[in-house]
Amino acid sequence: MSSRLLNQIGLFFAALVIVSPAILFFLWMISLSLKFEIDNGAYPPILIPERFAWSNYVKVFEENNFLLYLWNSVLVTGTATLLALLIGVPAGYGIARLKAERSAVVIMIARMTPGLSYLIPLFLLFQWIGILGTLWPQIIIHLVVTVPIVVWVMIGYFETTPMELEEAANIDGASSWQVFRLVALPIAKPGIVVAFILSVIFSWNNFVFGVVLASRETRTLPVAVYNMLSYEQVSWGPLAAAALVVTLPVLVLTMFAQKQIVAGLTAGAVKGG
Amino acid sequence: MSTIAPDRTGVTTGRTEVTTDRTAVTTEQAIEGSQTIRLAPNYWPFVVPALVVVSAVIVFPWAFTLWMSVNRWTLGQSRSFAGMENYLRLASDPRFWESLVHTLTYTSLSVAAPMFLGTVAALIFDARFPLRGLLRGVFVMPMMATPVAVALVWTMMFHPQLGVLNYLLSLVGIPAQEWIFNANTVIPSLVAVETWQWTPLVMLIVLGGLASVPREPFESAEIDGANAWQQFRYLTLPMIAPFLMIALIIRTIDALKSFDIIYAMTQGGPGTASETINIYLYNTAFSYYDIGYGSAMAVVFFIVIVALSFILLMLRQRSQWNDAEGK
Question: Which controlled-vocabulary keywords does the entry list (chain B) (predicted)?
Answer without folding.
Answer: Membrane, Transmembrane, Transmembrane helix, Transport
